[in-house]
Amino acid sequence: MFNFINSLVLPLIAAALIPLLLHLLNRKKLKIVPFSSLRFLKELQSKRVRQIKLYQLLIILLRMLFIIFLVLAFARPTVRHFLGGKGGQARTTAVIILDNSYSMQAQQGLQSLFGRAKLSLKTILQSFNPNDHITILLPLPDSLQQLTVSKKNRLSVKRLKPTNYSPDFSSVVMRAKSIFKRFPNFNRELYLITDGKIPTTALNDSARKILKHLNARIYIINTAANIPLNNISIDSAAIQTRLAERQKPVTVSVTLENHASQTKQITVSLFDGTARMAMQLVSLPAQSKRRISLRFTPGHTGFFPLKVEIDDDDLLADNAYYLALFIPESVPVLYVQNQIPVELREALNTLSDRSNLKIRQSDYNHWYGEPLADFQLLVLNDPPQITQTFLMHLRRFLDSGHDVILIPGMRLTPTAYNRLTNQLLSKNLFKELVKVSDQNHYFTLGTLSSGTNLFGNLFENRPAKIEWPPFYQYFKLTPSGRILLRFTNGDPFLSRFSFKTSGHLWLFSAGLSMPWNRLPVSGIFLPFLHRLLSLAANNDSHSEHFIVGQPISVFLNNLKLQGSFRLIPPEGQAVIIIPRQTFRGLRFDFDGFARPGHYKIFHNKKPVRLFAVNLSKREWSKPYFNLARFRPDIRLLSPDKLSIKKLKSARSGKELWPYFLLLALMMLLLEMMLIKKLEGKPESALSS
């Protein structure tokens, strides 16, 4: 079926009847004239007359066809093009999804992939008519940006910029469906301008179902097609040292990925601000990942804005990864116990004098009056009773994001301790008290659980096996939480339980004094106690790092809603921020940051929090979604061969006016040949 671009001239086809009408009107009535016998002349000319009438009818037909073909040529008929066009002069609803993720920043020569995308977008926009409805959708992490192009609202393509996001494309597909439903024009076109790096996780099942059955022509313009990418990315980085201390090595693990098709050698550097702290030369095979470790020794306490950086390549955005580290100058700890044993008291005093742990010792008659908000850690040893007030203070401290260490004693029964664990953990953990039959028999501790950092960096040369002192009794606990230390028979000795508020409960199954064990008089006791208290107190290590574009909540537990608060982003321009008071302390909520880097919060003029924001690694999470295989009728367009004429042809169809004009000329030529032949008939007839 034909479609006509200039259908207004089609009524002129009626002019094809003019030759026929002229022929009928010009026919004259025969006059009877007396003449001698014509019998021999009639016999001679009868056959020739029939031929002349036939030629006349053919000439009339050719003239009619000439007019028909000429009018059709001016009407510009079209047929379905190989790209699927069928629109003619019908209005078009077009949705253009422009991939603005950070991988589009990749540089190819003097132009980025996003630059190529903008050129393609400009060409596409120029192919539409003024009455078409055009919408440009730019995906964001959890939403989208919608731009409508119309006569009154002309889009400046130059203003469009790539982002640092790795967005979710599900929302833009759903919005495209609603736009097509709202503007149901005859032509419906969906364009996706991308570099093809859309992970399968970026499209949910609902979005895929929409794409599968969407009643629209879908075009994909891949700006990275047939272009080799020379890129190595920092997939992730993390501070492996659970407890960072001044003048002790800190390990940073870095995961690198080579996206190029060749082996690459790069230099990986670790910076503290602008000072290079560590460096390593790494060789990466093509299309591979590798994890390395960098080490540095902090020379001071306070905040460390760490940055892992690699050599420049085609994509600079993923060549840096930011980390935030905080080493406190002092860590306040509240230790509560009635009648503290001499060995334990001496150990606590030694730690207060020789480490950054500042341990305040109290008893159960006075600890309710202590300012709990001023302490990073609460240690409860051998509580005399579990009351509702006791549980309320304990819950409030855990909800503030801090840790609690609970060491059982002989004052309470397993039933009383289960009241505590049931209130906090909704579990009854304590069973019977297990004792040895005599002093010649004892229990021993086994090896540390996998991944436990309880003795990391504790020894100059880590011993192959730790010699634990004998244990004579302990409470048998139901295995639960994360078990950090076990007895050789498998029973838990030290477990850790996490709460949604990021606080932890460290639970022992035995006391740290006689008659439970000989731990206080062993050489391992002081290092063990120091490591335990430091790890628990540094749960809030100020080492948060977040993802670009995602909402962020930051808590400050030891400050009140007084004075002014400012946020200094990577670009350096301070912004006044207002927190809100919660049971965990001050809470700062941010909708999300568009730029990776370090962000620092100041209270008045004092820095109180440092956190890092990084790119999402989802951009390189393979496999990528192959839309062309998902829907076979999708058309792939090359950005280098994209043209306004081709797009219009794809929309309206292939124009046939040259063919109809040629047919009209052929009719005219045939008519001239027949006329010339007809004019020669009388002469031939007479000569015969």
Give a written overview of the molecule.
This protein has 688 residues and is of the alpha/beta class. It has five domains: 3-28 and 37-80 and 656-687; 92-228 and 622-654, von Willebrand factor, type A domain (Rossmann fold, 3-Layer(aba) Sandwich), CATH 3.40.50.410; 232-313, Immunoglobulin-like; 333-537, Rossmann fold; 545-614, Sandwich (Immunoglobulin-like). Helix content is 25%, strand content 30%. The protein is built from 13 helices and 36 strands. It has an eight-stranded mixed β-sheet with strand order 18-17-19-20-26-25-24-22, sandwiched between helices. A hairpin with a 4-residue loop joins strand 6 (133-139) and strand 7. Helix 1 (18-25) runs antiparallel to helix 2, helix 2 runs antiparallel to helix 12 (657-679) and helix 4 (170-182) packs across helix 5.
Produce the secondary structure layout.
Elements: E1 3-4, H1 18-25, H2 39-75, E2 77-79, E3 92-98, E4 107-108, E5 111-112, H3 113-126, E6 133-139, E7 144-149, H4 170-182, E8 187-194, H5 205-213, E9 217-222, E10 232-239, E11 250-258, E12 264-272, E13 275-284, E14 288-296, E15 302-309, E16 320-327, E17 331-336, H6 342-354, E18 357-362, E19 377-381, H7 388-399, E20 403-407, H8 414-425, E21 430-435, E22 445-448, E23 473-477, E24 482-487, E25 492-498, E26 504-508, H9 525-537, E27 545-547, E28 552-556, E29 565-568, E30 575-577, E31 580-582, E32 585-590, E33 597-603, E34 606-614, H10 627-630, E35 635-637, H11 644-652, E36 654-655, H12 657-679, H13 681-687
Parallel strand pairs: 3-6, 3-8, 8-9, 9-35, 17-18, 17-19, 19-20, 20-26, 27-34
Antiparallel strand pairs: 1-2, 2-36, 4-5, 6-7, 10-11, 11-14, 12-13, 12-15, 15-16, 21-23, 22-24, 24-25, 25-26, 28-32, 29-30, 29-33, 31-32, 33-34
